[in-house]
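User: My collaborator and I are trying to settle a disagreement about how two of our proteins should look. Neither of us wants to argue from intuition anymore, so we agreed to look at predicted structures for both before our next call. Could you fold the first one, then the second, and keep them clearly separated?

Assistant: That sounds like a sensible way to settle it. I'll keep them separate. The first protein:
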Amino acid sequence: MTRADVRNALADLLEAGLSLPSGNVLRYRPGKFYGMTPVVLVLGGGSTHDTTSQNDSDPRYLFDVRTFVLLGKADDTTWSSADSEAQLDSLDAQIAAIVQAHTRTAAWDDLAYTRSSVVEEVLSIDGWVYVRERFWIGATIL
């Protein structure tokens, strides 16, 4: 399996398991978000290819999973930064449950976080203000 195959399998799992509108899990960096929220990006994050004693390669593919949540909605005065924080918390819990439930699949032999997630500062994308959390997840292929 290639890293692209595994990235697509991980994105498929997230798309099926997260309570998001259709099309909000992306497998690439979009040019624009157009105010879409929440958005989850599943991006390649590197790889290792350890050689075994039989001269086989056991790849470990790393993924940079990013969640984006609007900090505020111009058309909704009831949405606040507390709602944004609650949405980030919900996505964190949902992603953790998906990773835990799918540590071994046909696509990989081990799926696990490689380090702690990080909530990053607020950023503006095309005039929309988002807060972002990044997760680093690794898949080992034997």
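The second protein, kept apart from the first:
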Amino acid sequence: MSNINELTLLYVEDDHELREQFVRIFNSKFKQVFEAEDGAQALELYEQHSPDMMVVDINLPKIDGLQVIEKVRKSDKNTPIVILSAYSDQEKLLRAMTLGLSEYLIKPVPQKKLLSLLEEMALKYGNDREKRSVIALPNGYFWKKKEKILCYHDEIIALTKREIIFLEFMMEQINKIVTLDSITNLIWEDEESTVSYSSLSHLLKRLRKKLPEELIENIYGEGYRITSV
């Protein structure tokens, strides 16, 4: 769960006076506020800072607000975005709704309404981010990506350094078959292939004593796979 004062915000508005007014307000609430006056600057700031949330005016110089969001959504489906418009344009509204927006507001927007909305979004964002940071596995096991911890219900499973490297790599490729070579090259890059294959076999043998036998699938002739629930 996230509080709004733990998050960063990108605010995009071409009206200088209005932007200054809202930036003062946002600065008192957010951890950090990045401000842009046009779409090109907005995309540049987004790439540099990866803000937690965005508030974007629909009508911007250089690149309009919808194009900004379209570019962001090509690689980022999760960042909460509020779009603001000075009028209700049905065509733009319909286009905006396909972009995974959190809200579409008609200007002028009351300060309290916008802040209240952003606070609600911050709570939801925190909950969603927490869910995305955990991979649920069969039989009550789960992997915490940020902490690199494997758990069985409330119990933390003790892992060696190489077991952690192996599991982290497998979790990055969750539900996909990972080849033997890619695993051994990652963990034993300086060793001969026959040695590294033998080492992987021993590593998997130790891991399977700590985990359900079926958790790490051996796909004959292809590699290994871990499947989420």
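Some points you might bring to the call about the second protein. The longest strand covers residues 8-12. Helices lie at 16-27, 39-49, 65-73, 90-97, 111-132, 161-172, 180-187, 193-210.
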